[in-house]
Amino acid sequence: MTESATMAGCPLCGGRKERVLFEEASAVLRMRIVRCGDCGFMFQNPRVSELMLEDAHAEFTEYERYPALQEAKQRLYEPRIRRILTSFFPQRPGRFLDFGAGYGAMLQAFRQARPDWELVGVEPSARAGLALSGQGFEIRTSIEELATCGGAPFDWINLDNVLEHLDDPVGSLSALRNLLARDGIVFIEVPNESFFRLRYRLNDWVRGSSKAPTFPGHLNLFTPRTLRRAAGLAGFRVTELRGVSAAEPGRMEALFGIEPAGRLLAILRLLRWTRLDHLIGMTYFTQCILQPLEVPSPVPGPGRKSSSGGPGRQG
Ligand SMILES: [Zn+2]
């Protein structure tokens, strides 16, 4: 076990003990991933430089604009929207916030499913924001801007592959809780990093070369356990938590814009049939639904900034 001095405390507990899980400082890759010695949370420390992140985001948002990908995302989101609305908001209209709205696939799918809901997006990318405004959506660039605009509390706040990008995930969730109705929900999907070490070793073995074990923008590496902990610290209870397989119908199309074929299709079919990834807790994503605790818990904790910042890009 390697103990090393930290530049910043753990984003969850403020702890300053850490163990290095991955470290590379080459010309092509600069990344250091640690696990908190107190709570077990995995995160990048130091964080990737702003410049590198902006490059990665620019590349990704370019890719995000492909219409085929947007359509595949909408097809993936439609059944999710229907399921959650039926469970939590049957019949009645409400207010929906997509935090990290990207190019609007979720907002579009929502508008089609329930035109009676009021829809708002938070998107820090100027280019994506412009595209969203062009589609007629109300768009803000940060939680702070959203908070100053007033308006009724939100009934559903959506963070789809966003929380792992945020500098202060607990602070951001906490700030969002203040914008949520008492009977409102927060839906979160994050990559499941429970098998982080195994995955990067498998990747290396398959490729025959070393590659970054996660996206540069993935500052926080959540497991179901640490996701629960972050939710609790931000004043939420976890109403539902489940693993979602990479073999979920439409998932590959929505992630990569590809129609699975050949060896990949065979693996996905095997997973769908056996549910092996569910059985061993190695599903690719974790989804959860949070509801506010009756009594808000005090945040921020030790060493945590009060600023919540804007969302990262989906990735
Ligand atoms: Zn910690």
**Overall pLDDT score:** 85
CATH class: Alpha Beta
Radius of gyration equals: 19 Å
The third-level CATH topology is Rossmann fold
- The structural domain count equals 1
Shape: globular
CATH architecture: 3-Layer(aba) Sandwich
Bound molecules: zinc ion
Major β-sheet profile: 7 strands, mixed
Primary descriptors:
Rossmann fold, 37% helix, 11 helices, alpha/beta, four-stranded antiparallel beta sheet, single chain, disordered N terminus, 22% strand, binds zinc ion, 315 residues
Topology of this structure?
Elements: E1 18-25, E2 30-36, E3 42-44, H1 50-64, H2 67-88, E4 95-99, H3 105-113, E5 118-122, H4 126-134, E6 138-140, H5 143-148, E7 154-160, H6 169-177, E8 180-191, H7 196-207, E9 220-221, H8 224-233, E10 236-244, H9 251-256, H10 262-274, H11 276-279, E11 285-292
Write a structural description.
The protein has 315 residues and is of the alpha/beta class. 37% of the residues lie in helices and 22% in strands. It has a 7-stranded mixed β-sheet with strand order 6-5-4-7-8-11-10, sandwiched between helices. Strands 1-2-3-9 form a 4-stranded antiparallel β-sheet, with no helix packed on it. A hairpin with a 5-residue loop joins strand 2 and strand 3 (42-44). Residues 1-6 and 303-310 have low confidence and may be disordered. The site of zinc ion (ZN) has 8 residues, from loops. Zinc ion (ZN) binds at residues 10, 12-13, 15, 36, 38-39, 41.
